[in-house]
């Protein structure tokens, strides 16, 4: 598909996970994509992961777009200034996917017994970075009608479900930014909203469960919880975002938080393996219904 041919996109946090997959799927539709993040082939980041923004840019180009790698630490306004200057005078699609807070999460620890520095770092990585990116890059989006800004979060509801107070604040804060963008950008005939994946089979998650994309089912109910049976690749959300970017009526979603499974039902795409995971239905019909995940038929939710 070439329905984004001629469009300029910036993806923050494009090194891995949803950021990388979104960049690639935008490229697959013909977009020029600036892939921004901290980890390069010459210098790492505190995440200590092997993926690089150069890798992402090459994947974008191989998919049919034009990928450009730009090193950017989104905690540093000067770095974002440099990114802005390298892009030029317009951005048609801005994907705000900075995170980098996983290493600060303390699982199963009461907040008051956790590290305050770690808690503040989660919020700083999740919210300050988004505010800095938006402050510097939004002028390029609103310079002409039709721009699209998508915030990326975890979860489509503000009901608290853990795992920690700082994490909840970080992710619900991103949803709040998306709601505000929906109102603010409409004044300039642009659209702002938020998206979320379901149970994500990211590079980090696969490593955590000691499996690969080819063997991930081996971890279900063992190293991974039984819910992992309805997990999805980052490209599932990436395809949803690409569909939004190509939708001439995307403004109808302004201010909303859309999940990968909601986008799937709207646009009819599938994950890389041809299945259509529905994490939302799994939550409602299995978890909330009190059914043991092992007793549910995963085929009904894929």
Quote the CATH topology of the largest domain. Answer: Rossmann fold
Q: How many structural domains are formed by the residues?
A: 2
Instruction: List segments where confidence is low: pLDDT < 50 over at least 5 consecutive residues.
Output: none
Number of E strands: 7
Q: In whole angstroms, how far apart are the ends?
A: 25 Å
* Structural class computed from helices and strand pairing: alpha/beta
The CATH C-level name of the largest domain is Alpha Beta
Shape: globular
H and E order: EHEHEHEHEHEHHEHH
- Proportion of residues in β-strands: 5-15%
> How many helix segments?
9
Give the name of the CATH superfamily of the largest domain. Answer: NAD(P)-binding Rossmann-like Domain
- Widest β-sheet, arrangement of strands: 3-2-1-4-5-6-7
State the share of residues found in helices, binned by percent. 25-40%
Major β-sheet annotation: 7 strands, parallel
Mean pLDDT: 96
CATH architecture of the largest domain: 3-Layer(aba) Sandwich
What Rg is obtained from the alpha carbons, in whole angstroms? 18 Å
Organism: Amycolatopsis acididurans
Protein name: SDR family NAD(P)-dependent oxidoreductase
Pfam family, one: adh_short
InterPro entries: NAD(P)-bd_dom_sf, SDR_fam
3D structure, described in words:
InterPro entries: NAD(P)-bd_dom_sf, SDR_fam. This is SDR family NAD(P)-dependent oxidoreductase. It comes from Amycolatopsis acididurans. It holds the Pfam family adh_short. There is one protein chain. With 302 residues, this protein is an alpha/beta fold. The protein folds into two domains: 8-197 and 234-271, NAD(P)-binding Rossmann-like Domain (Rossmann fold); 205-231 and 277-302, no CATH class. It is 39% helix and 12% strand. It has nine helices and seven strands. Strands 3-2-1-4-5-6-7 form a seven-stranded parallel beta sheet, sandwiched between helices. α3 runs parallel beside α4. The longest helix has 26 residues, at 116-141.
């Amino acid at each position: 598909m070439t329905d984004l041919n001629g469009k300029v996109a910036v993806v923050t946090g494009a090194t891995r996970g949803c950021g990388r997959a979104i960049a690639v799927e935008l490229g697959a539709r013909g977009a020029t994509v600036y892939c921004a993040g901290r980890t390069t082939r010459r210098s790492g980041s505190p995440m200590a992961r092997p993926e690089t923004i150069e890798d992402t840019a090459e994947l974008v180009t191989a998919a049919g777009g034009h990928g450009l790698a730009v090193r950017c630490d989104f905690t540093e306004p000067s770095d974002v200034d440099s990114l802005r200057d390298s892009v030029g005078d317009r951005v048609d699609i801005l994907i705000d996917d900075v995170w980098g807070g996983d290493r600060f999460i303390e699982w199963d620890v009461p907040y008051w017994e956790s590290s305050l520095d770690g808690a503040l770092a989660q919020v700083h990585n999740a919210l300050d970075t988004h505010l800095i990116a938006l402050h510097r890059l939004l002028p390029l989006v609103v310079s002409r009608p039709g721009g699209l800004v998508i915030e990326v979060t975890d979860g489509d509801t503000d009901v608290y479900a853990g795992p920690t107070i700082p994490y909840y604040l970080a992710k619900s804060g991103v949803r709040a930014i998306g709601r505000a963008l929906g109102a603010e950008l409409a004044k300039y005939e642009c659209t702002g909203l938020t998206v979320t994946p379901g149970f994500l089979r990211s590079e980090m998650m696969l490593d955590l469960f000691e499996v690969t994309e080819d063997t991930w089912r081996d971890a279900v109910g063992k190293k991974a919880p039984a819910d992992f049976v309805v997990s999805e690749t980052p490209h599932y959300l990436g395809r949803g975002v690409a569909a939004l970017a190509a939708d001439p009526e995307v403004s109808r979603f302004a201010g909303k938080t859309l999940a990968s499974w909601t986008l799937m039902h709207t646009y009819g795409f599938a994950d890389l393996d041809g299945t259509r995971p529905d994490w939302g239905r799994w939550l409602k019909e299995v978890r909330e219904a009190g059914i043991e995940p092992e007793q549910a038929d995963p085929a009904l939710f894929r």
